[in-house]
């Protein structure tokens, strides 16, 4: 008599999605009451997101920018939603996948920092156009070619992601200052950028799953709608954001970059904090699926993605609760705590085998911390980095992360010399080290520093 073993496919309960998004809604809805009750005591203003009085010009500017940023996030999401399944469709083996990704990491390492500097010199608006053009070219390549070069696609996508990491933030901050909006309103835009980016990533996954259900019946790449969104974004930039962009002289820029970025130890600490979160995020998206399905466990992976991104959205909504005032160094302990919790979450995963439910919970905690850290780092950059050097500083800070990802892909993905647990542990240790960097940044901030920003 045979025994039939029923294998259960693990998936999160539907109430999980409702719970996450209800928490996000509650956090945003209750924020004005907290701002009004605590703002008077601290001498700060209410959140500009809910202030409909004299801030109407700022709200118009903010909404136009967030619309463009959401379109850009949809492009990023559509290109990465299928991951290794798209590589497998083109007949790429696992070792070749690692080398293709390594080529993209190498491009980000050697070309990415130069793109940030070029963005500062020619103006961030042109860098945003470059981001859209890269996605447009990638979409056209995949549409006209039945078997596109995955090497070219990986390099173009990696360069587009590098440009995305700094161009829109730099452009927003520059336009914010040029239009004369209040500096404390920047914090609202920073957390909304993370929130809308996360929401756009979830939406892009849903769109991709709706349009492309069966690889076996002919695969129409997600780059096709991404190319359409790129065209819409280019037209939107030309119509709504056609103001003159200030350009820098190369010689003057080089002296300023050397003085304010390379020779300032506070910037080095901030760069490590940025690099560590970028490296850990890259490693997470490479290793999260192999970690969860280890030992032959069956999981609906596509249903876990909204949980992770929803946790990131929730983390971003926590930012204005702790950074509601005018920018002054006083709440860095929350950022340090977020780094420590994120590092410990990954460290537990790397140290010991966990049940699927525990793994998902730890990964959600990690993403909630990431959602809080990202706008916090943008706020720190506003405090320490001159606007005309912002793109170069961000791209410069991501170079160590790109180098680490390149090493991991070659030694771990291709040569199999690094275990997944060791790679995850390295990412966790980097986050814990970043917490120490923020602590040092807080201590050194009490020392006098040059006044780089306009009052």
CATH superfamily: MFS general substrate transporter like domains
Q: Write down the secondary-structure element order.
A: HHHHHHHHHHHHHHHH
Contiguous low-pLDDT stretches (5 residues minimum) are 1-7, 39-48, 325-329, 449-455
Oligomer: single chain
**What's the gyration radius in Å?**
22 Å
Tally the helices: what do you get? 16
Pfam family, one: MFS_5
Protein name: Molybdate-anion transporter
Keywords: Membrane, Transmembrane, Transmembrane helix
Transmembrane segments: 15-33, 95-115, 127-144, 150-168, 218-237, 267-288, 303-322, 334-351, 357-377, 389-410, 422-444
What does the model show?
With 455 residues, the protein is mainly alpha-helical. Helix 6 packs antiparallel against helix 7. It is built from 16 helices and no strands. The N terminus and C terminus are likely disordered. One of its GO terms (cellular component) is membrane. InterPro entries: MFS_trans_sf, MOT2/MFSD5. GO terms for molecular function: molybdate ion transmembrane transporter activity.
């Amino acid at each position: 008599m045979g025994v039939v073993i029923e294998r259960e496919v693990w998936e999160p309960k539907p109430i999980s999605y409702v719970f996450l998004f209800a928490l996000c809604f509650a956090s945003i809805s209750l924020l004005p009451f907290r701002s009004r009750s605590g703002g008077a005591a601290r001498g700060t203003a209410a959140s500009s997101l809910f202030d409909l009085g004299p801030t109407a010009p700022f709200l118009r500017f903010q909404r136009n920018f967030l619309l463009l940023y959401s379109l850009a996030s949809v492009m990023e999401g559509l290109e990465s939603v299928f991951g290794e399944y798209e590589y497998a469709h083109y007949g790429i083996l696992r070792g070749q996948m690692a080398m293709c990704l390594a080529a993209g990491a190498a491009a980000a390492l050697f070309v990415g920092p130069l793109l940030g500097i070029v963005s500062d010199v020619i103006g961030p608006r042109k860098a945003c156009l470059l981001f859209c053009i890269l996605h447009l070219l990638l979409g056209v390549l995949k549409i006209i070619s039945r078997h596109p070069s995955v090497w070219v696609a990986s390099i173009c996508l990696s360069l587009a992601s590098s440009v995305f990491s700094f161009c829109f933030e730099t452009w927003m901050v520059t336009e914010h200052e040029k239009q004369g909006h209040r500096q404390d309103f920047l914090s609202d835009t920073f957390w909304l950028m993370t929130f809308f980016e996360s929401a756009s990533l979830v939406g892009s996954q849903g769109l991709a799953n709706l349009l492309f259900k069966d690889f076996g019946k002919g695969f129409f790449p997600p780059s096709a709608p991404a190319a359409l969104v790129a065209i819409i974004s280019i037209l939107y930039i030309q119509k709504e954001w056609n103001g003159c962009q200030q350009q820098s002289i190369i010689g003057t820029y080089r002296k300023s970059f050397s003085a304010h970025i390379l020779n300032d130890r506070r910037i080095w600490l901030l760069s490590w904090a940025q690099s560590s979160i970028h490296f850990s995020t890259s490693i997470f998206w490479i290793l999260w699926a192999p970690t969860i399905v280890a030992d032959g466990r069956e999981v609906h992976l596509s249903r876990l993605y909204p949980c992770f991104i929803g946790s990131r959205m929730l983390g971003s909504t926590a930012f204005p609760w702790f950074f509601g005032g005018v920018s002054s160094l006083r709440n860095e302990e929350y950022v340090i705590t977020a780094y420590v919790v994120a590092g410990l979450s990954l460290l537990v995963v790397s140290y010991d085998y966990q049940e699927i439910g525990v793994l998902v919970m730890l990964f959600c905690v990690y993403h909630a911390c990431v959602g809080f850290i990202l706008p916090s780092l943008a706020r720190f950059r506003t405090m320490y980095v001159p606007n005309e050097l912002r793109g170069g500083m961000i791209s410069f800070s991501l170079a160590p992360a790109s180098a680490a990802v390149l090493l991991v892909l070659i030694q771990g993905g291709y040569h199999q010399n690094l275990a997944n647990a060791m790679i995850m542990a390295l990412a966790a240790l980097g986050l814990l080290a970043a917490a120490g960097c923020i602590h040092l940044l807080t201590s050194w901030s009490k020392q006098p520093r040059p006044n780089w920003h306009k009052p």
